């Protein structure tokens, strides 16, 4: 029997399996049926893992049959961005250079999801190596937004966002280096979270910019976001930057309300010219909802964050150019044929394997780190990073949560910005400072403009995910928006 | 700071990217468009500001110096484009 996964939550699935209302196998089959029905239009996946899903579901059903207690994500269909390793799958990063790369170990966050009973339905399309904001930079073709198939789902974790939005998976993981979880979350009407740097192990996610990357969840509701965060966070000996910091039971503390919570609207970022006034209005309406719930609302400026974009497009590519040096055609990945010597092998394997945006970023990063330019670019960008951190520290003296839109616009048309890298880079103007400062932030759906979702961007102090979840949950409950895309509601499965 | 065609070629060599001539020309235009945006931070006076290398509140993480299990050789070689005798095979190295 198939069920409509666009209306079932993770908690309901686990409880329904425990109560015998349905089985984990029912859930896996429902997800696979929905993928079969929608994937031709959406292209959210690089690989659908039906075998792994049915095996995992059978294990959950065995537990349930034996009357054992079920783990928190038991039987929940989940999808992973295709830069996260999982044995039994390929991990391509949507790049030709890794097209046939078969994972030899598991990403810690993925492993924690599976150990919590989740059922893996597939690996999701993305911008190549996470370089992009539209999922158009995939070597395997773009993902389409379930709200309007002519539009992008955002990026770089666009496949993960689209899969959850369309109900092809109940939860998904993405990675966020400058907004790659939150921006697609906003553009697809899903809840999308970047935890504090260090909260979630980065072991097994293919590195883009190691000082900025963080794994986080997509879900339809804040409660599922909180549940997933509790599952994936925590110290991991395989990632020295993961932190041993206790996390509260977020699904419990999120119900505490926002009475007296100090909410700061970031005035100067809200006023940016490139921000659609209707997106700005939607954001302010959401702030009014929080005020109506008892939050104290004020305004604050983050002047150094204006320089977040240029600093990010030095630091990100610099770290990426170093991380991507490993793709050399020697140990794994694409190897050019008939190379004369090792140098020829490097030059041709890399030029053949990397797509245009990857080449652009590697070039930019290598230039910024090269002799004579290091101080002017990389050194200067690192100092800007310090100023941005200070801006946030100051703002968090007066406020508990800071607010901007997640993205300055709603989802744009496929092809609209793909020939203009600079215009594409501006999609992440609100999300980038958060990665530079290492703080947590969440995007929560806050309405529609022209029938397309808008995201409310809530930023918090280091390791204060609890306050963000509390704010997001209070807003979501009060606003009570229906964020099912037309595509998902029209479908009978 | 504008980037010249010669610099594009030099950076491509440093990055081990064997670019075609038309790619070099395209990248020169694209990189200069991006550098116009980035150059805004050159105007900032950042004298006395300490650089930030990472946003994590941790330093010098170490673990006991003991041998731990690692990937078996066969698994490490599983994705190798070419292998021989349990090793990665490469073309001749140097002159």
CATH architectural label of chain A: Alpha-Beta Complex
What is the CATH topology of chain A?
Amidase signature (AS) enzymes
Contiguous helical run count of chain A: 18
Rg estimate of chain B, integer Å: 22 Å
Q: Which two chains share the most extensive interface?
A: A-B, 70 and 54 residues
Number of domains of chain A: 1
Structural class of chain A: alpha/beta
Largest sheet of chain B: 2 strands, antiparallel
List low-confidence stretches of chain B: none
Proportion of residues in helical segments of chain A: 40-55%
- The CATH class of chain A, by name, is Alpha Beta
Strand/helix succession of chain A = HHEHEHEHEHEEHHEHHEHHHHEHHEEHH
Strand content of chain B: under 5%
Give the C-alpha Rg of chain A: 21 Å
Shape of chain B: flat
Oligomer: heterodimer
Strand order of the largest sheet of chain A: 1-3-2-4-6-5-10-11-9-7-8
Shape of chain A: globular
Question: Given the helix and strand composition of chain B, which structural class is it?
Answer: mainly alpha
Quick recap:
The complex is a heterodimer of chains A (493) and B (95). With 493 residues, chain A is an alpha/beta fold.
Task: Explain how this protein is built.
The complex is a heterodimer of chains A (493) and B (95). Chain A is an alpha/beta fold and 493 residues long. In chain A, 41% of the residues lie in helices and 13% in strands. Chain A has 18 helices and eleven strands. Chain A is globular and about 65 Å long. Chain B has helices at residues 5-14, 21-38, 73-76, and strands at residues 83-84, 87-88. Chain B has a domain at 1-42: Histone, subunit A, CATH 1.10.20. The mean pLDDT of chain B is 92. Helices cover 34% and strands 4% of the residues of chain B. Chains A and B meet through helix 11, helix 12, helix 13, helix 14 and helix 15 of A and helix 1 and helix 2 of B.
